Amino acid sequence: MIEILLYSSTQSNLSNILVWVLLSVLLFILVGMIFWQRRTGKDLADELAELDKVEKNNVQNEFVLKALGVATWHMDVATMNIVYDQDFRMRSDGWITDASDADGHFGKGLSMLQEQDAERIAKSMQALCEGKTDLYHEEYRVMIPDTNRFFWEESYATVAEHNVDGSPKVIVGTSKHIDDRKEMEDALKDARFKAEESDRLKTAFLANMSHEIRTPLNAIVGFTSVIADVQQEEERKQLLDLIHENTQKLLRIVDDVVAISKIEAGQEEAVMLQFDLVQILNEVVGRFADKVKDGVSLTTSYASESQLVTTDLNRVQEIMRHLLSNAVKFTDRGSIVVGFGEPHDDRIKVWVRDTGKGIATEYQKRVFERFFKVDEFIPGAGLGLSTCSTMAYSIGGDVTVESKLGEGSTFTFEFPVGN
Description:
It is a single chain. By secondary structure, the protein is an alpha+beta fold. Among the domains are: 67-177, Beta-Lactamase (2-Layer Sandwich), CATH 3.30.450.20; 269-419, Heat Shock Protein 90, CATH 3.30.565. The chain is built from nine helices and 13 strands. 18% of the residues are buried.
């Protein structure tokens, strides 16, 4: 009986020990699992934080690319296949593109370029693919499908991966439309050209003005100094006429310079008056009736006997005086005709047609430039037609020319009829 009790007690102790061992193991496992879970949770949190950081960087990079209007792409050197990763290029000239349009073989993109650019781009990319250079940077014109128009694009590229032998494997690059920049560059070039041309014209102006002013001034001073010694009345009258003629020439030169300066400075506003155009034209023609050369006829051709217009009277007179003066100066034979047609769309065209020397095609636009002279040996400061153009523009009009060298010219002055 005692042995049985002892045995039972022993068995009970063993069971308790086993339970405690099992509990200890379970507790150890539980503690280990807690530490493992915490560590796993920390790693997961770190990974999530890293993913969040990457995502934020991607968003930032995407924002930068979008703000810059840049497309990113990569090209496999072995196959020369290009894949666009992101495309935020500004659309050009109404052509809506997609990155997939440019995906494919490099040659597909070359076929879209202007011929003179395609060869240069091919050589530049080949040098990068062969490892001869580390950077590709080109500007080129991309033709818009089914049109004769194009847009400018700029690309950068470099090697991203190399083969075992060190040769380029993958090339990455960016592309961007640069139409705005090209327009700005063209505008700056044009401004620079105009500034240089203006400087040249100023120099020419000083030379011309020096000559043009000195010529009548010398005549005035010379004739004035000798007139006191002339006793014959007829000779004195001739000298006085010459003095008066040269004085008028000098005044016209000064008046032209002052008129242009005032109009461009906005100091002289147009004075709108209603008047009969026929009467004004007849007055201007009458002033030149005795100045045409022998063998040249001066006539008029009007669409009506009377034509009321409302505009600046003085400027119309000045413009017609300049145009008729030029016709008289350059016409040695044939005819000079002053006329106008019927008003159209509330505008009227007045013209001066002559059979004079004519103007070469390459000079027909330049004759309206300030101080420009087709023939440097003909007297004048080169301000007349420039004055006409400036005055016509100030009243909403325009002055144009049609001419053929050796056959004559037609200058047309078009302006609003007014109310």
